[in-house]
Design brief:
With 141 residues, the protein is of the alpha+beta class. It has one domain: Pnp Oxidase, Chain A (Roll), CATH 2.30.110. The protein contains 4 helices and 6 strands; from the N terminus they run E-H-H-E-H-E-E-H-E-E. Helix 1 runs antiparallel to helix 2 and helix 1 runs parallel beside helix 4. The protein is globular, with a radius of gyration of 16 Å. The protein starts with a strand and ends in an 8-residue tail after the last strand.
Length: 141
C-alpha cells in the first residue's frame, strides 16, 4: 500500500494536481508535470504537513473494510537497513474532506483513470509509540 503525507492545508496542491490532470489528455505529460512539482520544494517544509498519512484502496476492498472496522493498525516500513513501525488510528475520509480530495488528485497524477468510488483512508500515527530500528543516534551530552 502506498501512503502519502497529508498536507495541513491541501487546497493549493490539490488545485495544481486537479488542473494538471484535467489540462492534458497525455498521461505522460501529467506524470512529468506532477513529478516536477513534487520534486521541487513540496516536501522541503515539514511544518506544512499534518503528521498523518493517507492511502487509496479500491471500493469493496477487504483490507479497507478490515482497517475501517478495526479503527487501528500498525504501518510498517522497511527499506535497506531501516525499519519503522507506526501504530495508527484509521478512518475512512468522507466525500468533501479536503484530505480526501488531495489524495485522489495526487494519485491521479500517476493514474488518471482512478475512479471516484474508492476508499481514502487516513492514518493518524501515535508518534509516542512509534518504533525505529536502528533508532536515532544518541545526542552527546
Amino acid at each position: 500500500m502506498t501512503v502519502l503525507l497529508a498536507p495541513r492545508e491541501p487546497a493549493e496542491s490539490t488545485a495544481f494536481f486537479r488542473f494538471q490532470v484535467q489540462k492534458s489528455p497525455d498521461p505522460r505529460d501529467v506524470y512529468q508535470r506532477g513529478l516536477a512539482f513534487l520534486q521541487s520544494d513540496y516536501f522541503q517544509q515539514p511544518e506544512t504537513f499534518s503528521g498523518r498519512v493517507t492511502a487509496v484502496l479500491p471500493a469493496g476492498s477487504p483490507l479497507a473494510a478490515a482497517l475501517i472496522a478495526d479503527g487501528v493498525c500498525a504501518l510498517e516500513f522497511d527499506q535497506f537497513r531501516q525499519f519503522y513501525r507506526l501504530p495508527c488510528g484509521v478512518h475512512d475520509l468522507a466525500d468533501g474532506d479536503t484530505a480526501r480530495a488531495a489524495t485522489i488528485w495526487h494519485n491521479r497524477l500517476f493514474n488518471p483513470a482512478l475512479p471516484d468510488d474508492i476508499h481514502v483512508l487516513s492514518f493518524q500515527p501515535d508518534w509516542a509509540a512509534a518504533e525505529a530500528r536502528p533508532g536515532p543516534p544518541a545526542i552527546p551530552p
